[in-house]
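Q: For a teaching handout, I want to show students what a protein-ligand complex looks like in token form. Below are the inputs, and the small molecule is magnesium ion. Please produce the holo structure.
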Amino acid sequence: MKIVVLKFGGTSVGTVDRVKKVANIIVGYVKKKYKVIVVSSAMSGVTNDLVKKSKKISNNFISSEYDALVSSGEQMSCALIAGRLNHLGYKSQSWMGWQVPILTEGNHSSSRISQIDKKKINKFLKSGGIPVIAGFQGINLNKRITTLGRGGSDATAIMCAKFFKAEKCVIYTDVEGVYTTDPKTLKKAKKIKIISYEEMLEMASLGAKVMQPTSIQDARLNRINVDVKSSFKNKSGTLITKRKNIFNNKTIAGLTSTKNDAKVTLLGVKDKPGVAASVFKPLSQNYINIDMVVQTSSGNRKETDITFTIKSEDLLKTLKLIKQNKKIKFRDLIVNKNVSKVSIIGVGMITTPGVTYRMFQTLANKGINILVISTSEIKISVLIEKKFIKKAISALHKEFKLN
Ligand code: ADP
Ligand code: ASP
Ligand code: MG
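A: Here is the structure, written as tokens, with magnesium ion included.
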């Protein structure tokens, strides 16, 4: 069987008209003799709306019911697609995660797919049917509904491609592919024809919403080539693949920025072993993700300052935990909610000297102050004031010849 997995994102199924267009795309693959497995997200805005409702009920909504709630949008879109395919004369059926079943492990709202039962889907495919599988959801060992984190339909599609040994996995979205930076932030952004898993993973983790980061980890681990393209225009998109398949690497593949970061600084904490651990232990126990960290070296060896960044939504909880923490003493606490992390990503920086200097100098030329820096082998991130994001992205895009 020549199998293809086609995933449609929220905007692609955002209206009844869009659902009709999506059905036509699916039929196009059937006519090319593919066995098609469809994965769909909820219609755009639906999941956000459900999240908002949960917040109005409780600011500490129980996670198992949160998953039952926010996964419900996918039932509507999948039934609409299957309904339209039947209308066009093609046998099709919708499948929620529990019906397949798609088994997951890990915590509610950030589960990972561990197993997909292939029996029923394979039987349906062999009988000429087109299964439409709900993205973003599965069940755990207790048979409770789980979700895979926001944007998680991408992971459902990639894991379907793995378990059904698909020849292709195509992610249909509202832009023509992966761009050098978010095309909605910078008009000069360019479509990338081919990008490595490593670069895509960094870009996704650092703010490029176009692909969910865990889905790229799954694709990389299972060596699944992923095509990202538009469901609005019939144009070639971006291929996400292994590094070996890419010949002319640019120094920098892309730039990203984040929207919801907050910076916390503890001034005058004791400069002795174990203090940093005492600061971060209660945060980790409460599942608060720490991103960038710097500790300034103390001149007198008695006191030091610790700065770290977190997601803005975790700020109140973080401040409460720090104030309650009897194990640490500090002179003052400073918070900045108007910060953003701007990153440059590229495997080419491993072999090209001077990239860090060029990034810092470009920002300096624009009068942009760097608050915190973090690096890995293939990325450099800086924290800056949020109001400078556009200016920074535009200047760096030009400096690294991406325009
Ligand atoms: P879908 O609903 O199809 O999953 P998403 O909204 O999750 O779509 O992702 C697509 C969006 O990602 C685009 O509309 C675009 O604004 C945003 N985006 C951010 N960074 C990038 C990038 N580097 N390339 C392409 N799109 C990006
Ligand atoms: N509908 C879910 C969300 O909005 C999953 C997805 O879009 O991939 O996060
Ligand atoms: Mg998405």
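A: Two things your students might notice: The radius of gyration is 23 Å. The mean pLDDT is 96.
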